[in-house]
Write a structure and sequence with these properties.
By secondary structure, this protein is mainly alpha-helical. It is 75% helix and 0% strand.
């Protein structure tokens, strides 16, 4: 993956963590809403695995966000660096 791609994945993971805290959700709560194992979600948000697009869409939907909104927040985080 490109350097930008790696940075964007990290920024997305940060946004997911922020959304979890804002909602007072656990990783287990989100994993169940998305239909994946908690351990799988953990690998995505710790950067051990890349999140597939269908899972990303499901995560955004679980948060009540559009995938575009979640991606824009991550991109804004990168631009702020």
């Amino acid at each position: 993956m490109t350097d930008y791609g790696t940075q964007l994945e990290a920024a997305l993971a940060t946004e997911i963590k922020i959304e979890l805290v804002a909602r007072d959700w656990t990783q287990e709560t989100l994993a169940k809403a998305v239909g994946i194992e908690r351990a799988t979600l953990t690998r995505y948000i710790t950067g051990k695995r890349s999140m597939p697009m269908p899972t990303f869409f499901a995560v955004a939907e679980a948060f009540g966000l559009s995938p575009r909104a979640l991606m824009q927040r991550a991109e804004a985080r990168l631009e702020a660096k």
